[in-house]
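Take a look at this chain, tokens included, and explain the fold to me:
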Amino acid sequence: MSDIRTEPEDGAATRVAPSAELLERIRRQRRHALELLTVSAVGLVPWTVLLWFTLPSGYTVRQWRTAWVGFDGLLILAMATTALLGWLRHRAAAVAASATAALLLCDAWFDVSLALGTSGVWLSAVLAVAVEVPLAVFLIRKVLGMLSLAQWPPRTPLGDGDHNG
């Protein structure tokens, strides 16, 4: 955590070091979040293997149109939100751009994988390679650029057991 800025009445910014309690709370929340993500990733491995062996290779679905139009509507919303926040120069544009990139990669994956074995696979592959994946990579690069411009705390340990900052 970087120093906390305060604005006194005269307008001059001063820095106040965060309290030990605040640093401990941040360290604990970070550790819990990382533990949750680690357990989730490890737990997803056997689930994915189970699905590979138990799911049918083909499946008739209901509401196919609703699913795809709904997903594309969500993608439109994510793109529009990213654009709006970008025009407003709001820092939340990085979060919206990350979500948009993830949705674009999901769209490319499902478009291609669900078209395998059909005549539409080539169009799906061209759109994935020429539009969806490059746009996702562009957004990810922009987000990384925004993050590199942000003022980050020095890479010092927050407390016991936190040696990576």
